[in-house]
Amino acid sequence: MFNERRAVAALLVMVCTEIVDFLRQNYVAKTASGLLSSAEDRKAIEAFDKWFKSLFSRRWQWTFLTIALAAASPLICSFTHHASRHDRIQTIVAGYVVAFFGLHGLYFALFIPQLARLVSRQNMHLYWLRPADTPWIERLSAMFTAMCIGQIFGGSVAFPILWLRMPKGSTVGFLASLIWLVIACVVVCYSFLFPQYFLARVIKEKKQKDVALLQSELHYHLQTCDSFGHAQEWSSSMQNVFGAYELAATAPETAVNFKSSIFVVGSLLFPAINLVLQLVPVLSPKK
């Protein structure tokens, strides 16, 4: 039993470490520079600078890890209840190593989605007519999607080893599978839907401003058609404004594309399938 647990510990350590390092190096750093360069006033720059410094603050990270490890200690020690002294020490050490890296990943998983809410409160530069195509919007959306899929994938890698040790058709196995699926759904809601909602709100507000401006421009052209020297000139100007209005009115209101949605929904299939596999023996009549 303890060999399998140590194997799970090693997998979780690698997965959590890689997810955190990947996000820090490939997404968060690039996102920080993109947001700072796209801020339209000093207030936004100072808000982003303060937020990123707090996120990577060693003081905040160690405070969070200390409190979380202390709270997780009874659970870690409970795994060694029936173990020998040698196995108990190894399991406790492995448990704390897993908890340390896992909670370190949890720290970023809890705080990074809050960046979207901060962005929605600032004055930011967005593309004219197609705000969803703004580079920093696309980069933020991709970061939240990758983080969501990465967290669920981390559980999907480690859980099958535990699943092999679970008695099939048992209540414990069914409850563990149900909890795993619930946690995966919570991850999707908080790491994906929550930040994408705030990004969509930013995009929608910009789109509404563009549409309102073009509507007033169309109204102005209709009211001043007689002031143009030539009908052809008026017609050309009207077509340009109407074309811009049509482009703005049909612009997407979210940066989430179909491919990202498929990946996020697909990441829930494994825990869902596992729950069904655990549920079938429980519901099947016993001979």
Question: Overview of this structure, please?
Answer:
The chain has about 290 residues and is mainly α. The protein is about 80% helix and about 0% strand. The protein is built from ten helices and no strands. The protein has helices at about 1-40, 40-55, 60-80, 85-110, 115-120, 135-165, 170-225, 230-250, 260-265, 270-285. It is elongated. The mean pLDDT is about 75.
Provide a concise account of the structure shown:
With 287 residues, this protein is an all-alpha fold.
Topology of this structure?
Blueprint: H1 2-38, H2 42-55, H3 58-78, H4 85-111, H5 114-120, H6 135-165, H7 171-223, H8 231-249, H9 258-267, H10 269-283
Q: Any descriptors?
A:
287 residues, mainly alpha
Any low-confidence stretches, pLDDT <50, length ≥5? none
Helical fraction: over 70%
Radius of gyration over alpha carbons? 26 Å
Structural class: mainly alpha
Distance between the termini: 29 Å
Summarize the biggest pleated sheet. Answer: none
How many helix segments?
10
Order of helices and strands: HHHHHHHHHH
Q: What would the principal axes of the Cα set say about the shape?
A: elongated
Query: What fraction strand?
Result: under 5%
Secondary structure tally: strands = 0
Give the mean pLDDT. 76
